[in-house]
Amino acid sequence: MMKPKNIWHLFLILLVSIFICCKDSKTGTKNAMEPSSQNTLVTESTEKTDNQTSRDYAKIDAGNDIANIEKLKETFRSKNEVLFLEQFPSDQEQFMQHFGWNYKSNQPNELYEESYAYIDYFFNLLSQDKYKKFESKFIDIAKDGSWQEDAINYFQDKTLNFIKTGKRYDLINTLSSDEAKSVLFFLFDGPHPKFDAEFASHLSPSKKEILEELFKTGFYDHNENPDLIMPDLEEVDPIDDEGSIHHDISDFEGAEHFFIRDIDINNDGVLDKIVSADPYQGDELFLFENVGGEYQHTLKTINFSEDGGNQIVDVIAENSGFYIKTAFPDGGLLEADYHITFKNNAWVLTHTVYRTQSSNQENAVIYVCNVVQELNLEDADFFERLKGMPYETDRERLCSKEKMN
Question: pTM above the 0.85 mark?
Answer without folding.
Answer: no
